[in-house]
TrEMBL record:
Listed Basic and acidic residues bias regions: 34-43
CDD domains membership: ligand_gated_channel
Location in or out of the cell: Cell outer membrane
Protein name: TonB-dependent receptor
InterPro entries in alphabetical order: Beta-barrel_TonB (IPR000531), Beta-barrel_TonB_sf (IPR036942), Plug_dom (IPR012910), Plug_dom_sf (IPR037066), TonB-dep_rcpt-like (IPR039426)
């Protein structure tokens, strides 16, 4: 196996949202106390969350559903798979099943699109959804993940189903110089030939006087992936033969106890270099999946050639009276390539590029009306410039350079009535302006008639303006530790995949196209609680929108359905410390959705609605330094559609039930060296991925991984 040393990119960086300004000294102490408590227990009721309100606060005071993935949980999952789609799919109730691909198409959150961020920097491309945002950095750079479920007005465009905020690692505040070195290998246990991959990473961290820093780099090669029968998985959007780079750095400087400056940078690259091409399977034939065979792939290597993220954050406590301030300037430059195909006339390979420049001003002012009524007001301004286009690598333009500017003032009020009742309300005003230049459409393939349609239309550009006021309100009662109920209402705003509308434009003027914003209303009632060694949570949700954003195929051409939608479902989870050495836990989530048509309501397709998901885990610690984690992932399937003329169409394929198991174990030597072993698909279950079943496409009919093992060794100093 050829060995590569990672190229360590040492750039100045800082923690953005994960170390934002604290409300006051008491909240700062709350954060510190919570960290200490978290190290002793996995009870999340007292955990601190930032993404829900842009201010650190205890999770049990947030009137909405939140899932936190801690550093410990991330490491358990990393020992099984380094694919963030796998990690989140197995860990977050309400989030769709892993696609086992570089694309997260169909991995929705409660049936709607999710906004993905790195320390608050948007990774999603709502102007043209490339479905690559979940895999936007290497998970080894993460300290934790915060998932806010349901429509949210907190962060604006694209958060219809909620948001995923990747919180990057923080500097070691105790040591001047510390670090961790890790290396490992992953390979198939079913016909391991050509499947062996490897990874190597290095992290340095510490604090010197008023400076603190953390710098890390990681390089990985994945090797080939095989199914349960040893067949090579399709390379199209595949995890096969990937070369992944990640370089991360942050630097912080404390001017004094109240003022801090931080700068952060993360570089991510993931491209596929393989000697295999896809051989189409036969949809519906269990023994004829799409596989990889030897061949020369046309075009440039698929994947993400680069994703640059940088932020500069200034925080100040008590800047005016007791008011705290946080100001963040951020930048993202992102490019992704999909496979070369005959989808466009004369063939071609599409590339989507997005550049974002943004500024966030956030202020927080506490108030006290009486000993029993107090709270704080969070208010500020978001400014964002987003330039997105899709072009073919041969230079032809598919979607013109869409320039979006967004100016959004907002405020949130958190009011405490006594020590136990929390009321939160807020408003956000979206002011979105999008300019589109003149362009000419390219013909796309109609796979029903095998002809090319829609090309050569000269479209006059123009300006689009959207102004929407969004409201949210939530109430939570925290007196009883055994039962802390909440109820909430929240709205979200998004311009639903404008690029797809422009790509298929039939009108000669942008202003004549069916471009409208989607406002989703989310209603939720839920609870959390703990009794002795048992903790639990649950929620029921209902989401509506007068305009939809579902992909439909009409006469073989992809379009967006604008019909009204409603989505509903529930989630429930529990954890139980059965014994000091033995923990058990499980989560169940169910989502269903329909859209209104002239002939009645019809179910939303699999690209929006995932089948019911049941996950369960057990953690056993035979001795202090040895931990064994087992995990089950199950679905009962989903079958909502009937074939038309004997065939299913995109999004309507039935999903069959399956159950798979994973294993992760770690052993610590002398408190500094850790040996980890993970096994994906422990019992070599032979089954198709969820996305391959609902897509109803011979070329996308791909099975899940067979049994695959990861072994790693890390040393800290």
């Amino acid at each position: 196996m050829k060995f590569y040393l990672p190229f360590m990119l040492l750039l100045i960086a800082a923690n953005s949202l994960s170390a934002q300004t604290n409300n006051n000294n008491s909240e700062q102490q709350t954060v510190q106390d919570t960290i200490k408590e978290k190290s002793k227990s996995d009870n999340e009721l007292n955990e601190v969350v930032i993404s829900a309100t842009r201010q650190p606060e205890s999770l049990d005071q947030v009137p909405s559903s939140v899932t936190l993935i801690s550093k410990k949980q991330l490491q358990q999952q990393l020992s099984i798979s380094t694919n963030l789609s796998d990690i989140l799919g197995a860990s977050v109730p309400g989030l769709g099943f892993s696609t086992n691909r570089t694309s997260n198409l169909g991995q929705t959150l409660r049936g709607r699109r999710v906004l993905v961020m790195i320390d608050g920097i948007p990774q999603s491309t709502p102007l043209r959804d490339g479905a690559k945002d979940i895999r936007s950095l290497d998970p080894a750079a993460l300290d934790r993940v915060e998932v806010i479920k349901g429509a949210t007005a907190i962060y604006g465009n694209g958060a219809d189903g909620g948001l995923i905020n990747y919180i990057t690692k923080k500097a070691d505040q105790i040591k001047t110089f510390s670090g961790t070195t890790e290396t490992g290998s992953a390979f198939s246990l079913i016909k391991p030939k050509e499947t062996a991959g490897f990874f190597v990473s290095q992290l340095f961290s510490g604090k010197v006087n008023k400076f603190d820093y953390v710098v890390s780099g990681r390089y990985e090669e994945t090797g080939l992936y095989r199914d349960a029968k040893g067949r090579i998985l399709s390379p199209e959007y595949g995890m096969n033969d990937l070369k992944n780079w990640n370089a991360f750095a942050k630097l912080g400087y404390d001017f004094n106890a109240d003022n801090r400056l931080e700068i952060m940078y993360n570089y991510y690259k993931s491209t596929q270099v393989t000697d295999y091409i896809a051989q189409a399977g036969v949809y519906g034939n269990f023994d004829r999946p799409t596989i990889g065979v030897k061949g020369q792939r046309p075009g440039e290597p698929e994947g993400t050639p680069y994703n640059h993220n940088a932020s500069l954050t200034y925080t100040s406590k008590n800047i005016i009276g007791r008011t705290d301030l946080s100001a963040i300037l951020y930048f993202q430059d992102y490019l992704t390539l999909i496979n070369y195909s005959d989808f466009f006339e004369n063939n071609g390979q599409p590339a989507t590029q997005s550049k974002k420049l943004g500024f966030r001003l956030n202020m927080n002012s506490p108030y006290e009306m009486s000993p029993l009524i107090n709270g704080n007001v969070t208010y500020g301004l978001d400014i964002l410039s987003d330039i997105t286009d899709t072009h073919l690598t041969d230079g032809r333009l598919v979607i013109p350079e869409m320039k979006m500017s967004n100016l959004a003032p907002y405020f949130q009020i958190k009011n405490m009535f006594g020590p136990d009742l929390v009321l939160k309300t807020g408003l956000r005003l979206e002011n979105v302006h999008i300019s589109v230049p003149d362009y000419t459409t390219i013909a796309i393939r109609n796979y029903v008639t095998s002809t090319y349609v829609g090309g050569g239309i000269a479209v006059s550009g123009g300006n689009l303006n959207f102004n929407t006021l969004m409201f949210n309100a939530g109430l939570r009662y925290t007196k009883w530790n055994a039962f802390k109920p909440f109820a909430s209402f929240s709205q979200s705003f998004s311009v639903a995949d404008l690029g797809l509308v422009l790509r298929a434009a039939k009108e000669n003027t942008v202003s004549n196209t069916s471009i409208k914003a989607v406002v989703a209303n989310n209603y939720e009632v839920g609870f959390s609680g703990a009794v002795s060694d048992l903790s639990y949570e649950g929620a029921v949700f209902y989401s509506t929108s007068k305009l939809g954003a579902s992909y439909v195929y009409i006469d073989g051409n992809p379009q967006i359905s604008r019909s009204p939608e409603k989505i509903y479902g529930f989630e429930f989870g529990a954890k139980y410390k059965f014994h000091p050495k033995f923990d058990l836990g499980a989560n169940y989530s169910y989502t269903e959705g329909k859209r209104q048509t002239a002939t009645g309501d019809v179910y939303l397709g699999g690209d929006r609605i995932n089948p019911p998901k049941l996950t369960a885990f057990a953690v056993y610690r035979p001795i202090e330094n040895w931990s064994i984690f087992t995990q089950m992932i199950n679905t009962s399937g989903r079958d909502r559609f009937k074939p038309v003329n004997g065939s299913y169409t995109y999004g309507t394929g039935p999903i069959k039930a399956f159950t798979a198991f994973n294993l992760s174990t770690s052993y610590i030597f002398r408190k500094k060296t850790t040996l980890r072993l993970g096994v994906e698909n422990l019992f070599n279950k032979d089954y198709f991925s969820v996305i391959s079943q609902w897509q109803v496409n011979n070329m996308s009919y791909v099975k899940e991984n067979g049994t695959r093992m990861t072994v790693s060794l890390s040393h800290s100093f």
